[in-house]
User: Which sequence fits this backbone?
């Protein structure tokens, strides 16, 4: 392998430089600047949501773009702060003094390390355990929590936003008498304008103009205004606040306050910090205590970050992308970001959509976004102090409104009502207890359903006849595998079939069964012996060779196998009890044993096979 190949393997982004043209550079610059105009107000707002000073949102917005340009594989993905991760970070930033940034930066570092571990161990498939209903319930609950956490900023109430839905609503409702009219008016107008501008790009003004050049100019102007609506609203409200506050003795708006200008220091994250306890006493927290405080967030937050980033990559880049490569890029974005005072980051779907619509050609577009953020930190930071908090709250609320996915409920109700339960559990418990607990309970409910289906497979039971009139009972499992929780259920189904349809050879259709575990195989051996005592032959039909090997090695029994029901005659003719199976033809009887039916559970008592045995003797 040449040095060039090694370079491409370590830094896949270098491949984009091969054949990189001036047109590519212009397209990437336009897309990068457009995304930068989106991430600037969002970064400031998400830092506030996370309980940090606004500059930390900008610190988090530039490192990911550079790292992903080198390591990422999807040109549309933009890495940076998101509302969801900011909300989860805010649970650990309210201890006062300088502990907020210390906890956020340490969480960023640990998230990157966990993501790298997932990449090394090929654990990207863990996100597959989170089903769509659980994801919808989780994102909808977090959208509600994020929206309510911004009510204080929107209404002009003092105090932190917080991440607890119930306590936040209690605090807001208890302080409605302190609502500031100026902030409420500015916030509601900003939300209205943002939502109208979002719809502006769907309005076809250009069709009313005949000139092609005029159509292109109008369409381009509308697209720029709609795409950069967040920056436009923040700019206009900042100018309004600056002019108003200069002319009046008391400012009618609560402003963001001083934002530290300049680049962040490149340094190790702090592994100890100082907090204030409930009595206002300063307490020093060492690394072990900080890790204890972060708790489940150290695992839940990286999984959520990976889930979002892989979903965005697949949405824009197709199914051919490597989930492991995306994990490496995301983990290095967080690890490198932690040395630049970044809070946890991941891919942003809204900004990635803007990047895609802007015509980005390579991941190098993220570098242009990073340059714009760095210029803003160096030149514009002193002016960020005039941004009204109500405007930032409006930016967040207008973004998270569309994270609530009501449209999924109707098709789920029509197609699979069972899947509504894990989604509902996730949504309700996320609001009541916390997003981490809600997500875990939702995934737990989904896994419980999967285990239940494995333990209670659907069995199709039919009493049929061969061409020459030999009655037999056909048992057809609907699952591709039979594991230890299901073997007693299958034995109960066979026992009930014998009780219902009388003594007859039992044929277990294994055409769709591809796997047995050891316990299930031993259970089949016990079933074979019990049926043999009752003079009931058991046959395996269309069994795969691997199934026969597993049963033979586990039980030392040669299970008779057939390829089709008519083969029963050839085998039974060789038995001394052949005439016993030539019974009077009975009409076809079919029954179904499905999971959740009490009849199937209670049908087989331990004495049924013994009664059959008694009759045969």
Assistant:
């Amino acid at each position: 392998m040449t040095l060039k190949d090694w370079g491409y393997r370590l830094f896949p982004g270098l491949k984009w430089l091969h054949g990189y043209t001036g047109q590519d550079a212009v397209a990437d610059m336009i897309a990068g600047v457009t995304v930068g105009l989106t991430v600037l107000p969002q970064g400031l707002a998400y830092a506030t949501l996370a309980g940090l000073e606004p500059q930390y949102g900008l610190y988090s917005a530039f490192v990911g773009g550079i790292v992903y340009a080198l390591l990422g594989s999807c040109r549309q993905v933009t890495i940076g702060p998101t509302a969801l991760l900011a909300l989860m970070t805010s649970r650990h930033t309210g201890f006062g003094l300088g502990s907020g940034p210390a906890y956020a930066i340490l969480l960023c570092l640990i998230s990157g390390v966990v993501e790298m571990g997932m990449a090394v161990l090929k654990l990207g498939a863990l996100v597959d355990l989170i089903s769509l209903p659980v994801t919808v319930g989780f994102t909808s609950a977090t959208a509600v929590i994020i929206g309510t956490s911004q009510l204080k900023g929107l209404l002009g109430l003092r105090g932190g936003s917080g991440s607890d839905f119930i306590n936040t609503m209690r605090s807001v409702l208890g302080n409605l008498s302190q609502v500031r009219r100026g902030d409420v008016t500015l916030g509601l107008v900003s939300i209205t304008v943002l939502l109208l501008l979002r719809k502006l790009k769907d309005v076809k003004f250009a069709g009313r103009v005949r000139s092609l050049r005029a159509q292109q100019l109008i369409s381009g102007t509308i697209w720029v205004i709609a795409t950069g609506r967040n920056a436009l609203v923040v700019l206009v409200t900042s100018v309004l606040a600056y002019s108003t506050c200069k002319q009046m003795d008391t400012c009618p708006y609560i402003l963001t306050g001083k934002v530290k200008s300049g680049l962040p220091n490149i340094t190790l994250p702090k592994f100890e910090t100082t907090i204030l306890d409930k009595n206002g006493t300063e307490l020093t927290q060492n690394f072990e205590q900080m890790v204890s405080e972060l708790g489940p967030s150290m695992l839940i937050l990286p999984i959520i970050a990976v889930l979002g980033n892989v979903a965005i990559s697949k949405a824009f880049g197709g199914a051919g992308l490597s989930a492991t490569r995306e994990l490496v890029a995301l983990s290095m974005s967080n690890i490198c970001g932690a040395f630049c005072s970044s809070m946890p980051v991941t891919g942003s779907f809204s900004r990635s959509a803007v990047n895609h619509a802007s015509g980005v050609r390579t991941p190098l577009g993220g570098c242009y976004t990073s340059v714009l953020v760095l210029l803003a930190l160096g030149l514009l930071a002193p002016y960020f102090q005039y941004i009204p908090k109500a405007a930032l709250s409006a930016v967040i609320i207008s973004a998270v409104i569309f994270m609530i996915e009501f449209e999924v409920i109707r098709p789920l109700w029509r197609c699979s009502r069972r899947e509504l339960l894990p989604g509902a559990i996730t949504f309700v418990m996320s609001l009541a207890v916390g997003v981490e607990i809600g997500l875990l309970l939702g995934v737990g409910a989904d896994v419980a359903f999967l285990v239940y289906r494995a333990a209670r497979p659907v069995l199709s039971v039919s009493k049929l006849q061969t061409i020459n009139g030999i009655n037999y009972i056909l048992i057809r499992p609907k699952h591709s595998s039979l594991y230890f929780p299901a073997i007693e259920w299958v034995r109960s189904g066979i026992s009930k079939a014998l009780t219902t349809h009388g003594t007859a050879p039992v044929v277990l259709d294994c055409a769709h069964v591809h796997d047995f575990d050891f316990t299930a195989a031993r259970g089949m051996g016990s079933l074979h012996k019990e049926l043999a005592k009752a003079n009931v032959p058991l046959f395996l039909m269309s069994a795969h060779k691997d199934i026969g090997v597993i049963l033979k090695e586990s039980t030392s029994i040669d299970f008779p196998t057939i390829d089709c029901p008519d083969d029963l005659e050839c085998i039974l003719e060789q038995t001394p009890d052949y005439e016993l199976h030539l019974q009077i033809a009975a009409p076809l009887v079919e029954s179904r044993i499905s999971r959740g039916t009490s009849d199937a559970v209670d049908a087989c008592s331990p004495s049924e096979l013994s009664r059959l045995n008694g009759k045969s003797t």
